[in-house]
Amino acid sequence: SKPSYKWRRVLLKVSGEALAGDNKQNIDPKITMAIAREVAAVTRLGIEVALVVGGGNIFRGASWAGSSGLDRSSADYIGMLATVMNAIFLQATMESIGIPTRVQTAFRMSEVAEPYIRRRAVRHLEKGRVVIFAAGTGNPFFTTDTAAALRCAEINAEVVLKATNVDGVYDEDPSCNPNARLLDTLTYQEVTSKDLSVMDMTAITLCQENNIPVVVFNLNKPGNISRAIKGETVGTLIGA
Ligand code: UDP
């Protein structure tokens, strides 16, 4: 009989920074290919995978707002457009190794990708396609972490898997304290009260209110993405 896994449908959040690798301003094709291969392996097992991609490798609204008279909303729209570039890149990489993939954008860009339609996204997943959600929530002043929590709740995915460049959540900042301890588990309460920089408050409270567990893990360790998706212990698990 088929082995069963912890999650049936997951929401994988990949930040722009993670896509950049050593090439901080851009995309590292070795990383997008590694993601594609690992996602391919788990979709073959029957686990449904939706992605939310960030855009911080190209443009971060908050850090540009104010300069040259750029208002925050305009800056954030540029940031959302950046996530679309990453999404198209990831889609092309996935399809180059035979994974059927759809990009859905939070605002319309019909020549480039489908608009976000919840039921259609779910249908794609049921058919074994990977769905990449781009343009965040479609609203300025939000983040792609919040988009990940929101889409996860909307499509009834069971977990947000946050792929980062660190092994998980530490009790202290490991770049300041070499003795900082990696935490296996954490409650939402601890994340918010200790102000641990896991996700922004909007994202983490949305997860908490909807009982969505969050796994923070390092995507640079080979095999970690598929391990996280299969529900194996990796990184830090945040829950009630
Ligand atoms: N953004 C936004 N609304 C959203 C999601 C993203 O305005 O719902 C903008 C915001 O400017 C943000 C940028 O898109 O800085 C890139 O997203 P994010 O910083 O979340 O990407 P990541 O940190 O994951 O690379």
Automatic annotation (TrEMBL):
Domain annotation Aspartate/glutamate/uridylate kinase: ranges: 9-218
Transferase is among the record's keywords: yes
Pathway the protein acts in: Pyrimidine metabolism; CTP biosynthesis via de novo pathway; UDP from UMP (UMPK route): step 1/1
Leader peptide range in chain numbering: none
MF (Gene Ontology): ATP binding; UMP kinase activity
Enzyme Commission number, as recorded: 2.7.4.22
Domain of life: Eukaryota
Family note: Belongs to the UMP kinase family.
Protein name per the record: UMP kinase
Species the sequence originates in: Cephalotus follicularis
Range covered out of full length: 95 to 334 of 341
